[in-house]
Design a protein that fits this description.
This protein is mostly helical. The chain has helices at 3-17, 24-35, 41-52, 61-82, 93-96, 99-117, 122-149, 157-182, 187-214, 217-220, 226-229, 235-243, 246-255, 263-276, 279-299, 305-318, and strands at residues 86-87, 90-91.
Length: 323
């Protein structure tokens, strides 16, 4: 199987599971967010991982769906907190309906995610729920760190990297480990593929940070410069503050600490500082470092050759990703 095969297997399963029942105003937003696209990276990884350790990918479909539903639940709530208008090139849930609907529909998605794990035998279910709950807590902690950073002026690059590890990488890592659990892989191999997932997730998120400022809105699916408008302290911003002169730091801090009346002007001003200090190039070096780490960890895994090759191709494609 290749990546598209795993994706098709999951999407076919997803379509069978999506339904709009009463009350429709609760379940329509759920169906909407699950059907408007997305890379489906996490469910694909669950299927690849199970396959890599010798289990039929179809037996990991419930894990894949649980992860995807949980991930989309976090997006619905994140969009509310960020007051985002666009998600995957479409109107966000809270904007299409309203904030209260977004909160409640997100809540039911979280519950649904746990329900899908109930389809596994008790021993496997217990292992899956343990890592799933730990990961869910870490994702929430990562989101809180992200929110805290908005009002802090002393955020370090190391603190930022820890935040994105919790907010993004741990879910990717847990997805891979859960696929390994389905396949009854050893604890050691579970840990190895988890660590691979952390490195993969870090590279993925840093590429996301890069695309938020320097991507193409037609392929990225979100507003370009969204992080800048929300005054988020991303890797690009923090690296610039670390490298800039005192005068430039003061000016950059002044324009990223308030709401601008001219959004496009603010985005271009901030991006000009990123380019001046070449952080748009520095972040690519950082992405490659995490990608190389992921490849080294992957080489150490005792898994089937073909799924390993698919995972390798996924890592190598990260630096070329445009959405």
């Amino acid at each position: 199987m290749n990546t598209n095969d795993y994706k098709k297997l999951f999407l076919d399963f997803l379509q069978k599971k999506i339904s709009v029942k009463e009350p429709k105003n609760l379940y329509k937003p759920v169906a909407y967010i699950l059907q408007i696209g997305g890379k489906r990276l996490r469910p694909i990884l669950a299927l690849i991982s199970a396959d890599a350790f010798g289990e039929k990918p179809k037996n990991a479909l419930d894990v894949a769906l649980a992860i995807e539903v949980f991930h989309n639940f976090t997006l619905v709530h994140d969009d509310i907190m960020d007051r985002a208008l666009i998600r995957r090139g479409q109107t966000t849930v809270h904007e299409r309906w309203d904030v209260n609907t977004g909160i409640l529909s997100g809540d039911v998605m979280l519950i649904n995610a746990y329900q899908y794990l109930e389809n596994y035998k008790p021993k496997v279910f217990k292992q899956l729920v343990k890592i799933f709950s730990t990961t869910a807590m870490e994702v929430c902690e990562g989101q809180q760190y992200d929110m805290d950073f908005e009002t802090q002026n002393d955020v370090s690059l190391s603190a930022y990297l820890k935040m994105i590890e919790y907010k993004t990488s741990v879910l990717i890592a847990a997805t891979l480990q859960m696929g390994a659990i389905i396949a009854n892989a050893s604890k050691l191999e579970q840990q190895k593929i988890y660590e691979f997932g952390i490195a993969l997730g870090m590279a993925f998120q840093l590429q996301d940070d890069y695309l938020d400022s320097f991507g193409d809105v037609n392929t990225f699916g979100k507003q370009i410069g969204g992080d800048i408008l929300e005054n988020k302290k991303t890797w690009l911003y923090l690296k610039t503050m670390e490298s800039a002169t005192q005068t430039d730091r003061a000016f950059l801090q002044s324009i990223t600490s308030k709401i601008s009346e001219n959004n496009s002007e603010k985005i271009e001003k901030v991006k000009s500082f990123y380019k001046k200090y070449r952080v748009d190039q520095h972040i690519k070096t950082q992405i490659k470092m995490y990608s190389d780490t992921a490849l080294a960890l992957l080489d150490a895994l005792d898994i089937k050759a073909k799924p390993k090759l698919v995972l390798k191709e996924l890592v190598l494609s990260l630096e070329k990703r445009n959405r």
